[in-house]
Specification:
- The structure is a single chain.
- 44% of the residues are buried.
- The protein has two domains: 104 residues, Cytochrome Bc1 Complex, Chain D, domain 2, CATH 1.10.760.10; 255 residues, Neuraminidase (6 Propeller).
- A hairpin with a 2-residue loop joins strand 3 and strand 4.
- By secondary structure, it is mainly β.
- The strands form six sheets. Strands 1-2-25-24-23 form a five-stranded antiparallel beta sheet, with no helix packed on it.
- It starts with a helix and ends with a strand.
Length: 474
């Protein structure tokens, strides 16, 4: 059970009211804590019957918004009820203020990544591949000695022979680094040894029109080559119609993968305009499929349909943050952020509707209902959903030889829950889940390297980890 479950359980059971102390701010929060919570968490928040509240470890999201929503709406499957009916928003915020002030006064910092891990199948060594990065977002591999990492503010970094080069690659495209936008995915062409192509996804802005407060933006895909640590030969292979660009700054997607036939798939989130995910004239809320030079495949499902964008492969997606191709079947899987609840794992099929926002397992962040439907004929049901949301992010199938028991299992990262999960899939069904890394940081990407090791990108802190086996368990 989380520290929030135990702490707020005590607060609510004993019926705290805002007028109990007649004062507000941190003194009120402290009085509330001492009166109702210290018996479990200790007078100095050091822990006792329940967890410490000043050790900088938050199992279900450290951000204030995460904490607030966890308290207000609960985590029922872990025994934490919602407190919306018994605590006001003001009370919840005062409790959080007091706890954060106490944490700062204690001078605690998040613990470093673990040096070793133990999973069901392996004892594992954890090494730091790169650190000091600024919001790293994606990782891919040119060869076992050369690793590319994107930083969301707009830089591509190179790890060469185990060392992070201090200077970013020169000449990469200018990105809109606002909100959730910036430089997103990097993907190395499957035939890179012959053609040298590398692909980037990023938020691209147009010039603001008269009267616009900020320029409209959308996800864009380019490719280029690296020569002498510089980006050259850039080609735009996907740019949405400019009239579809929006001024929101969130839900850009975007991941890039290649299937065995050589097609390139990428996803664009709904950009905060949820109903447009059902509109085939809009690029957002869609999975797209193109040739690697940007041409549209003739057999894409909506080619020739009036008003439909020909690059669309599937629709009704909220905000895909992970894409992976199964090593044996060649089929594309995605993970996407739900609203408050309802993160999804989907097997992507041609022309299908994945339901957002008509069907969903989640609520709006203020607790209001988006849709009462979780299933509807003609709309796909996810292969797995997470409720509450773990903020799924980064996805890859394990296909190396260092962890043979994991072959073809799915590696799933999570931002909010700060974990990497390992999913065993059979007949398109998830039959087992295991958490193999927890509380090392916000996991933005996870990937199987060409060397067979597992790489984990933590965007807080800005670190890349490598997991390698020490020994296999019997």
């Amino acid at each position: 059970m989380s520290r929030w479950a135990v702490l707020l359980g005590v607060v609510v059971v004993l019926g705290v009211g805002l007028n109990a102390w007649g004062q507000e701010g941190v003194p009120y929060g402290r009085a509330l804590y001492m009166e109702k919570c210290a018996s479990c968490h200790g007078a100095k928040l050091q822990g006792g019957n329940a967890q410490s509240l000043v050790d900088a470890v938050w199992q279900f999201g450290a951000g204030r918004g995460y904490v607030f929503r966890n308290i207000k709406h609960g985590i029922p499957h872990l025994g934490m009820p919602s407190y919306e009916a018994t605590l006001t928003d003001r009370q919840i915020n005062l409790i959080i203020d007091f706890l954060h002030d106490a944490e700062r006064e204690a001078g605690v910092t998040p613990p470093p990544p673990p040096e070793t891990l133990e999973t069901i199948d392996y004892h594992i060594k954890v090494d730091i591949v790169a650190e000091g990065l600024e919001v790293p977002w994606s990782i891919d591999f040119i060869d076992p000695q050369h690793i590319l990492i994107t930083e969301r503010p707009g830089r591509v970094r190179l790890v060469e022979n185990g060392r992070l080069r201090p200077e970013p690659i020169a000449g990469t495209p200018v990105v809109l680094n606002e909100g959730q936008g910036g430089l997103l995915d990097v993907a190395v062409d499957p035939n890179h040894a012959r053609n040298g192509w590398i692909y980037l996804a990023y938020s691209h802005a147009l010039k603001a029109k008269p009267g616009q407060n900020r320029p409209p933006a959308m996800t864009r895909i380019v490719r280029g080559r690296l020569t002498n640590h510089a980006w050259i030969d850039q080609q735009v292979i996907y740019e949405a119609p400019h009239q579809t660009y929006g001024t929101t700054r969130h839900h850009y997607g975007c991941r890039i993968v290649f299937d065995p036939a050589g097609y390139l798939y990428f996803a664009i989130g709904d950009r905060g305009a949820q109903d447009q995910a059902q509109d085939l004239s809009r690029p957002n809320g869609k999975m797209h499929r193109i040739h690697r030079d940007g041409r549209v495949p003739k057999d894409n499902p909506f080619v020739g349909r009036d008003g439909a964008l020909p690059t669309i492969y599937s629709y009704g997606h909220r905000n895909p943050q992970g894409l992976a191709v199964h090593p044996e079947t060649g089929r594309v899987w995605d993970t996407e952020h739900g609203p408050m609840g309802g993160d999804e794992l989907n097997l992507i099929s041609k022309g299908l509707n994945y339901g957002w926002p008509v069907v969903t397992y989640g609520l709006n962040y203020n607790g209001t209902v988006i849709s009462k439907l979780t299933r509807k004929p003609g709309m796909e049901t996810p292969n797995l959903y997470w409720k509450p949301s773990i903020a799924v992010c980064g996805l890859d199938f394990y296909r190396g030889d260092k962890f043979p028991k994991w072959r073809n299992r799915l590696l799933v990262g999570a931002l909010k829950y700060e974990e990497v999960d390992l999913l065993d899939i059979a007949a398109d069904r998830v039959i087992h889940q295991e958490t193999i890394l927890k509380n090392a940081g916000r996991v933005r990407d996870v990937a199987c390297g060409l060397d067979g090791f597992v790489y984990v990108v933590l965007n807080r802190p800005g670190t890349v980890l490598r997991l390698s086996p020490i020994r296999e368990k019997l």
